[in-house]
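**Backbone shape codes:**
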Amino acid sequence: MKEALQTIIESLVVETDKIQINEVQGEKSIVYEVKVADKDMGRIIGKEGRIAKAIRVICKSIGAKEHKKVTVEFID
């Protein structure tokens, strides 16, 4: 699932070398902390947060297959 998130974010940002994804595993949950370059943060969030919401929906649906609750946080 981390690879899918990485692929999505790489296709959206300009500075792909500054992408950092930290995975925090819980018993029934996974938290992904995503950090990108400051100027790419707007590309990830999108207008009114639509792109960020879409990324979260995709990750939650992938996690549902594995019976895990998935949360994606975008960190400045």
User: Anything to note?
Assistant: The chain has one domain: 2-75. Residues 50-65 form the longest helix (16 residues). The domain at 2-75 is CATH 3.30.300.20 (GMP Synthetase; Chain A, domain 3).
